[in-house]
Amino acid sequence: MVDSPLFKNNAISSLAADITAGSLTISLSAGDGALFPAPDVYEYAVLTLRNIATNTREIVHCTGRTSDTLTIERGQESTTPAAFSAGDEVSMQITAGLLEYLRDN
Questions:
Q1: Model confidence at 75: pLDDT above 80
Q2: Element (H, E) at 49
Q3: Model-level pTM?
């Protein structure tokens, strides 16, 4: 079965804790998890992590959500996994990869 992207309007939060370039889960600010989709099998949500101090960005796929904790696949759409700090931004944005998926499907 083909993976399917999920969408939600105005999904934006901040990291509740620092993450390393190898982290596979992120914690959002308390109560903000509900702003984001909860992917099931074969579903994902495209998220952008943004370091607010340096404007470094990384695109990730969220493959699961439990409360305010998201499971992610790092370094999507040719971005590089990076470390991010508590308070950095997590948001759903339109990306080139997402638009290509919609065009092709």
A1: yes
A2: strand 43-50
A3: 0.95
